Amino acid sequence: MPGVVVIRGLALPDRRSSKGAKPEKDDDKSKKVKDEAMGTALRTVYHDAVSEPVPDEMLDLLRKLG
For the range 38-46, what are the long-range contacts, defined as Cβ-Cβ under 8 Å and sequence gap of 24 or more? Predict the structure, then answer.
């Protein structure tokens, strides 16, 4: 897809290339859509990271500290 970057299955607008100028109103709407998509992608990545199990080795080290 041209103009799109896929991160963990989510399609986000590609901000690296901005060919052609758009009127200001379209830029504001486009920015809002891009910001919402980025927020969704960041929440998804965060949720995936905190949902991962803690390795046994790390739990052993934490028990030794406590």
Answer: 38/12, 40/10, 41/7, 41/8, 41/10, 41/12, 44/8, 44/10, 45/7, 45/8
The pLDDT score that the predictor gives to residue 25 is 74
Boundaries of every domain in the chain: 4-65
Q: What is the pLDDT of residues 35-55, one digit of tens each?
A: 999 999 999 999 999 999 999
DSSP 52: S
Between strands 4-7 and 10-13, the pairing is antiparallel
From residue 23, give the alpha-carbon distance in Å to each of 1, 7, 27, 33, 37.
23, 28, 6, 16, 21
Identify the residue with better confidence: 10 or 21.
10
Whole-model pTM?
0.48
